Amino acid sequence: MHPFSFTTAETAAVALRLAAEDPRARYLAGGTTLVDLMKLEVERPTQLIDITALPLTEVTTLPNGALRVGAMVRNSDLAHNEDVRRRYPMLSQALLAGASGQLRNMATTGGNLLQRTRCPYFRDTAMPCNKREPGTGCSALHGENRGHAVLGTSEACIATHPSDMAVALVALDAAVRTAGPQGERVIPIAELHRLPGGHPEIETTLAPGELITAVEIPALPFAARSLYVKVRDRASYAFALASAAVAVDLDKGVVRDARVALGGVGTVPWRSRAAEDALHGKPAGAATYRAAAEAALAGAVPREHNAFKIELARRTLVRALTRLEANPA
Amino acid sequence: MTAPHAEGTAGVVGTPINRVDGMLKITGAARYTAEIPLEGLLHAVMVTSTIARGEIEEIDTSAAEMSAGVIRVMTPDNTPKLESLEKYQREGGKGTGGSGGGRPTGRALSLFQDKRVEYNGQPIALVIADSFEAATHAASLVRVKYRAETPTIEMASALPSAYPYTQKVLGREPPATRRGDLAAGLAAADVRVDEAYTTPMENHNPMEMHATIAAWDGDHVTLWDSTQNVYGVRGTIAKSLSIPPENVRVISHFIGGAFGSKGSAWSHVVLAAMAAREVGRPVKIVVTRRQMFGPVGGRPHTVQQVTLGATRDGTLTALRHDSTSSTSTLEEWLESCVLATRILYDCPNEETSHSLVRLNVGTPTYMRAPGEATGLFALESAMDELAYALEMDPIALRLKNYAEADPESGKPWSSKSLRECYQWGAEHFGWSRRTPTPRSMREGDELVGYGMATATYPANRMPASAVACILPDGHVTIKAASHELGTGTYTVLAQLAADAIGVPVERIEVQLGDTDLPQNPISAGSMTVTSTGSAVHLAAMAARDKLVQLAVSDPESPLHGARHEEVEIIDGRLTRRANAPRGETIQSLLARHGGAPIEEKADAKPGDERQQYSMHAFGAVFVEVRVDPELGTVRVARALGTYGVGRVLNPKTARNQLMGGITFGIGMALMEHTRVDARNGRYVNADIAEYHIPVHADVPSIEVLFVDEQDPHVDPIGAKGIGEIGMTGVAAAIANAVFHATGVRVRELPITLDKLFPEMSIHSSNSPRQASPSRGFGS
Ligand SMILES: Cc1cc2nc3c(=O)[nH]c(=O)nc-3n(C[C@H](O)[C@H](O)[C@H](O)COP(=O)(O)OP(=O)(O)OC[C@H]3O[C@@H](n4cnc5c(N)ncnc54)[C@H](O)[C@@H]3O)c2cc1C
Ligand code: SF4
Fold first, then answer.
1. Which of B332, B600, B724, B748 is catalytic?
2. Is there an atom of ligand 2 within 6 Å of A158 CB?
3. Domain residue spans in chain B?
4. Contacts of the segment B566-574: beta carbons below 8 A, 24+ positions apart
């Protein structure tokens, strides 16, 4: 671990100023991603700005019905929040399907969105990795890539975005509120994470030092019927091989509206408008679900060890839709 | 020969008492190696290679040496040459085998004596600093230039280079065997199975990583080491550093899990001693989790061909098992996969063999049930395939070929309860509910599969010594340089001593893990209880005899003149059997004799009985799996094992060992797999987030049943080992259950969901071979 200094920011303004002064500073929230990567020497910040004291720990309902979640709200608190459980069950389920109880107690909403990939080559400084060291090459492309993405990949990087929570949030069209050198702004979550393209090292559209202050989830009454299904190599405490977040608005057996997002298969939390389009106006049922799944994975690119993920993701989505129909409550 | 007891007093052996060291452990008072505080302690961190094969051209340590807190950086450029290794090399030494042949270091270690690199992750330098953080940081500043060579990494492509293993296996068994006429047996068969089974490289991941602290005092060195073998480490240090063994003391009071990985003195152990000598201060090395992958052993890759032939009624006419396993380029280490095959079934025509393939990976080592866990996956999967081919119940097939005596040696068993294990296990499990056709059982949307397999492990035993010391205050001290791996050694030895002498178990203090104590063997091969337990029992009995002698010959004792056999000791009080009220306590007796303790030493070793009998533990394991028919996820819903392991000293710790073994088996079947990059031998999933072992949610209800087994021959306490048998057979039972549930035979561990979807793997390099029925799954 490289030497670094440690500062606690009591207000967002202080945090922003500290970050502006030191381009190699990093915000420290739960630390479950950052400290881990510091030990591995993947992250080498010169300064940690502890933001856990910031007053961003509330979950409130806004006048327009949206739910505002402070960036410092812990993953376990969010998962067990009554409004979340009632209005957005898929979000609660996604959170609880992630990591372990201990980690969720530490992890924050903002940190979860910005967690880094689990690609083992990214985490091993002895190996080339375009994301860690631009231009060195992608070790995973022709290496151990069983866990890697099949959607949104490039020849420069095929790493998955590992978050479960973010999959539910992209399905819900959440918005990310930030404060930065240029003031405050709101970023639709679908625009937060960037596809790797030729620059996998640039993962988000946040400016350097930009601070996430909250996530806002719009009112979406039919999301009260929603579900998150996660498939993994063991029963708990493992990242997704494939996952699906679905919400369906059914009207007399016909899909009026739907939200679909996939995890474990995309380089970013993967909203699938193609799948949603395939569901719209169609009768609920196996044929429609399968068509949606085909549409969702239409552009998938397999690598040597992860071809199974394409069919697995299709079946995971079909499973989520089928189960949602069977257990509407 | 068990301890005498008053009628109605059952004794503490055989009862499920809590661990005597439980309180120490849960309160944190039990000190593990890395926690030992020493004045002036320095911290060292190993720098490891990032190529798998080649030569170090240059190590630049300038930045590391300038870094704050750094005391010394040891590299091949400045590390003193070890005279012992130079002599060994001069004499053309090429020591082989797990025991190291004549190599002074035992295992082929990385002690910076040359600039060769033979695997990725090999220790190549050591940074010594005044804090762990400083050492870790400086280690990251060491720059290395290599002259890289093309490594051999992949088993599949290296298979053509396999060569037969020709030494004795474990120093006693022939590497290959042949009995009867295999070709004739195959010709006589109505049904044949001939398949290859593979198991991947695996790595031990005990909670406690290896740790060593070395401290010199003049020409004497003390090592606190997380080891299963204090005397073994002492020998390795003495030979490597060319000092007399008496100058080396090794201490290991508590170990946070070992499973074989801590059976050898690996590089960091000798490096700690070398470093401490170099800098003249105590030095600690704690292996990092990543360094658990390579430098401290692991289970090798195996590819096993099993050929079975049987007549229609299920009688085996031919049995062949050829195992090829990987080893490193540094050392020959053999996974003894076919030993269990030689003794399990009564087949007249049999051939077995071992071969090796050399890869540029860390040298493998013992990993819980080495050979049996892997070998039985192959054999017991093949037996299941044969049962299907014969349309016969798998238990009936095994009973049909039941070996009434050791089929290899012809010797009678010292005891064997396998028949009872099959029958009792089947009954408790509800085996009769199984409908054999694949995919014929469901619960809700899930496919249900039942599978079973045989478990077996040899009842090993080695010479061991112990001292029993009855103190004037009525307490007893037991001394034996054995080890507490988390298995319950302190507890069961206390129980044995308590019953042998006749004092409450609370009054026994057991001292383990210190070369100042009487010599004991490595705590491996499930032989701690059989070896050390026997010695403790004999020492305690001898001390008791002396105590009784003292009493009956003491005119002032109420027991004066009693016959020896008449005396009994209960709760530390000696009485005459016929006249219980007359007696005295150990304290009063010893007080009259100057308050001197009674101390007896016993050397226990296996004898003739080993020539007369074949000694093995047996069991049967049954599992129920649930498979999601669309997603392919496999979960073990329940597991049940029945075991004949001789006398069970403590049902609680014993059950704990067997449940742990079954859990380990679930990991082997469904998860464990060390992934190595085929291009450069880099260990890819070298942490426990990515290297999967079962979490609680993966471990179902596990039932463990013991068959009441009396074995008068195996050792003085009638116990067989239990540390490893629980792991054996489990992977096959699960694979068999998965076949029953799905109709897909997976012959390549671990059984991950992608292997149940062959039609989904577009060009997966490791798609499984299919047995009949070979149709796809879930479509
Ligand atoms: C063993 C293990 C298993 C896991 N399994 C899963 C899993 O199955 N599913 C899953 O989804 N996740 C999993 N995780 C990841 C876990 O969810 C994340 O580590 C966690 O959510 C990160 O939150 P944090 O608050 O700890 O972030 P930190 O580590 O504190 O921060 C992460 C990054 O975000 C930045 N940051 C944090 N907060 C802000 C903010 N408000 N504004 C701007 N930047 C910020 C930090 O500077 C840092 O770069 C696992 C993690 C581990 C270690
Ligand atoms: S997939 Fe991305 S993160 Fe992984 S090695 Fe390639 S570039 Fe790095």
1. B724
2. yes
3. 8-30+462-605, 33-150+206-288, 155-203+301-359, 372-460+611-770
4. B568/B4, B568/B5, B568/B6, B568/B502, B569/B501, B569/B502, B569/B503, B569/B544, B570/B6, B570/B9, B570/B502, B571/B502, B571/B503, B571/B504, B572/B474, B572/B502, B572/B503, B572/B504, B572/B507, B574/B502, B574/B547, B574/B548
Q: What is the dihedral angle through the alpha carbons of B363, B364, B366, B369, rounded to the nearest 10 degrees? A: 180
Give residue A79's Cα distance to chain centre. 15
For the sheet containing A242-251, what is the strand order?
A: A226-231, A242-251, A254-263, A270-271
Is residue B700 within 8 angstroms of chain A, CB to CB? no
d(C-alpha A284, C-alpha B305), whole Å: 50
Of B136, B635, B760, the CB nearest to A307: B760
Of A183-192, A280-289, B88-97, B431-440, least confident by mean pLDDT is B88-97
The whole-model pTM stands at 0.96
Residue A188 falls in which region: left (phi positive, over 0), alpha (psi -120 to 50) or beta: beta
Structure tokens of B119?
């695997």
Third-level CATH fold of B33-150+206-288: Aldehyde Oxidoreductase; domain 4 (3.30.365)
Is the pLDDT reported for residue A1 higher than 90? no
Contacting residues for A132 by C-beta, under 8 A, at least 6 apart: A42, A122, A125, A201
CA separation for the pair B380, B749 (Å, rounded)? 14
Helices in B431-530 by DSSP H: which ranges?
489-501
What CATH topology corresponds to B155-203+301-359? Answer: Aldehyde Oxidoreductase; domain 4 (3.30.365)
Residue ranges per structural domain of chain A: 5-50, 222-326
Does A37 touch chain B if contact means CB atoms closer than 8 Å? no
Q: Among the residues of B316-411, which ranges form H helices?
A: 339-344, 372-390, 394-400
Find out whether the beta carbon of A140 lies less than 6 Å from any atom of ligand 2. Answer: yes
Write out chain B residues lying below 8 Å of A142, CB-based: 679
How many other CB atoms are there within 10 angstroms of residue B55's CB atom? 14
Pairwise CA distance, residues B529 & B649, whole Å: 9
Q: Which residues pair with B405 in a beta bridge?
A: B412
By most ligand atoms within 8 Å of CB, the mutation choice from A56, A103, A106 for ligand 1 is: A103
> What pLDDT score was predicted for residue B96?
44
Q: What is the DSSP letter of B758?
A: G
Contact A298, A316 (CB under 8 A): no
Q: What percent of chain B has pLDDT over 70?
A: 95
B residues 139-158 closer than 8 Å to A (CB): 140
Question: Does B8-30+462-605 carry CATH code 1.20.1420.30?
Answer: no
B724 is catalytic: yes
The domain made up of A5-50 is a member of CATH 3.40.50.300:
no
- The pLDDT, as a whole number, for residue B233 is 98
B671, B760, B765: residue with CB nearest A312: B760
CB atoms A1 and B133 under 8 Å: yes
Q: Do A235 and B697 touch (CB under 8 A)?
A: yes
Side-chain-facing half-sphere of A287: CA atoms under 13 Å: 3
Fill in the DSSP letter of residue B514.
Answer: B
CB of residue A153 inside a 6 A radius of ligand 2: no
Looking at residue A181, what is its pLDDT? Answer: 86
How far are the Cα atoms of A223, B87, B651 from residue A217, in angstroms, in the given order? 11, 73, 55
Provide block-wise average pLDDT over 10 residues at a time, chain B (779 residues): 43 97 96 97 98 98 98 98 95 58 92 98 98 96 98 96 96 96 98 98 97 98 98 98 98 97 98 98 98 98 98 98 98 97 98 98 98 98 98 98 97 98 98 97 96 98 98 98 97 98 98 98 95 98 98 96 94 86 94 96 97 98 96 97 98 97 98 98 97 96 96 97 97 98 97 81 37 38
Q: What is the pLDDT of residue A329?
A: 57
